[in-house]
Amino acid sequence: MAARIFRTIFYAAAGFFLYIVALIQFFVAPGVGLRLEVTGIFIVPAVVALFVGFACDDFRHKARDTGIVLLSVAAFMALLILTWVCTLSSPELRKMVPPETTAMFSDYLNGFAFLVALAVCGLAALLAGRKKTGQEPGQPAAPNEPRAGT
Description:
mainly alpha
């Protein structure tokens, strides 16, 4: 039970750091080197937290759990972008947002490319994890332990 709680906490931490990495991709950086440096700073704790989460599960469901984390981050970023677009679509709220903010958050090509790559990698990892366990897509997960009396 404790391992499950710790695993969830570390996967959430990995998702948070990956969210920061995905958010950084939308910001305009003065140079490619700075973006890569800041991305590297946040990707390291994400990978460490992910591996600690794997260790809490004895490395049994690495692909599936990686897929879930990546798809969760991609979905959260998509929701954040939708919220940002809805916020800027209102003339009253657009007046309250300084122009520097919208200019700073405007590298859409790099951001969306990273978001699509994150979603594709997450889906591939999730499907690979399901295939490894012998579970067909669309079927419920098999229980970890057999039930008594069956």
